[in-house]
Design goal:
This protein has a single domain, classed as 3-Layer(aba) Sandwich (Rossmann fold). The chain starts with 22 loop residues before the first helix and ends with a strand. Helices cover 25% and strands 23% of the residues. By secondary structure, the protein is of the alpha/beta class. Strand 4, helix 5 and strand 5 form a beta-alpha-beta unit. A 7-stranded mixed sheet has the order 3-2-1-4-5-7-6, sandwiched between helices. The structure holds S-adenosylmethionine. The site of S-adenosylmethionine has 21 residues, from strand 2.
Length: 213
Amino acid sequence: MNVGRPPIYCASMSDRILGNNDAASWEAIYQADDAGWDIGAAAPPFCDLLVAAPAWLRPGRMLVPGCGAGHDAAAFAAAGFAVTAMDFAPTAVRLTREKGIHVVESNFLQPPAALTGAFDYVLEHTCFCAIPVCDRPRYVAAARRVLKPGGLLIGLFYRFDPADVNGPPFALSEEDLRTAFEPEFEILELQSPARSHGKRQGRERFLRMRVTT
Ligand SMILES: C[S@@+](CC[C@H](N)C(=O)[O-])C[C@H]1O[C@@H](n2cnc3c(N)ncnc32)[C@H](O)[C@@H]1O
């Protein structure tokens, strides 16, 4: 994934902080038809989750930040969830809208005030690993802000190779996840999915986290 612009550098953080967080750079990737992350369908662990239908997963309002082409958003909408997708790249917004999904064109790190406390779920999939490491606290704050009390952040967190510091996607370990999300979220489930797409096997974790009060 080449985002094509100079990286943002946050001098107060460690060296795992090179990145890019502007819509134009992501849009350029779509325009160049280079969205290598797009697997063309909902992520296999999400499909398995919807089939398994655990007791905690009941249709409700769901926000899908960094929705890309909207495959995951469409799968959960088809399963009865009231889905709002979000992306700041216009082409991602268009591709998701074409699937009949309600989409907000916005930077997730600054979610519109109207979305405050609006959702039962936030669904993550290769958005967190796209956020510059220094902005991870802003992702966590945004997820907290849009969730209802007791709401769940569920998703697939990608890239478990801490030795590789370049991104996006940025390196991410289980320790990084705990550092980023606790204590704002209580981690209820953290596991390697039984089935992942292609080369993602072993390189993603499924998490279920509840926002703390
Ligand atoms: C690696 S892609 C993943 C897309 C989709 N979730 C998937 O798995 O196919 C990351 C997506 O997040 C979007 N994105 C990155 N940072 C964002 C931000 N701060 N706010 C909204 N969208 C963002 C990008 O435009 C891109 O569509």
